[in-house]
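so the lab meeting is tmrw and i was supposed to have these ready like two days ago... anyway. pasting both below. for each one the top line is the aa sequence and the line under it is the structure tokens. i havent really looked at them closely yet so no promises
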Amino acid sequence: QLQLVESGGGLVQAGGSLRLSCAASGKIFSINTMGWYRQAPGKQRELVALITISGSTNYADSVKGRFTISRDNAKNTVYLQMTSLKPEDTAVYFCNGGIGVLPGPYWGQGTQVTVSS
């Protein structure tokens, strides 16, 4: 089995920054692509950013230029550096992992990010 555990959420003022972390443990070979999704109240879960094993990245248009996804393969950890945060970034952020495309079958428990105006 594979476990994904997120950390780093919290409350921040608009314009501020947060860094989310997602640590993978267990059957690490079960995934090569990792990403972050978010879900705001009353909205569908959406892909925020993803990163492949080779380091290729992709971002939602709404976060391009503000968020940066990265990974440390030695630590089996993926990060989401969020800057210039906006109230509309408020959501529960979920780490996701799979083989190739996302969403994969593995999800973290989610971490709340709240941006106050």
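ok protien two:
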Amino acid sequence: QVQLVESGGGLVQAGGSLRLSCSASRRFSFAAMGWYLQAPGKQRELVAHISTGGTTNYTDSVKGRFTISRDNAKNTVYLQMNSLKPEDTAIYYCNAIGAYSRIAYWGQGTQVTVSS
């Protein structure tokens, strides 16, 4: 079994930046990796996604502000968040799909709070 461990969340003022990281607990092969957010009282939704080859896509609300990247050697996915807005406030979860099993793994979530 493999676990995903997230870090980098916190409290930041509007316009600020945060960088989230998500690492696997052991060496593991992942296919697609991504970040999701869940705001209070709402469903979890996709923020950004990156394929094994590095192709990325983003939800419209974060395009131009957030950048997803991955380091396959470190089994780590990152989310650089710039120009943060109060509406970005949520718990952020990383997700990774096992390359062979196709099992979806989730991190425990990290809180991001953006104050106005």
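from a quick look at the 2nd one: The CA atoms of residues 32 and 51 lie 4 Å apart. The chain is about 0% helix and 55% strand. will dig more after coffe
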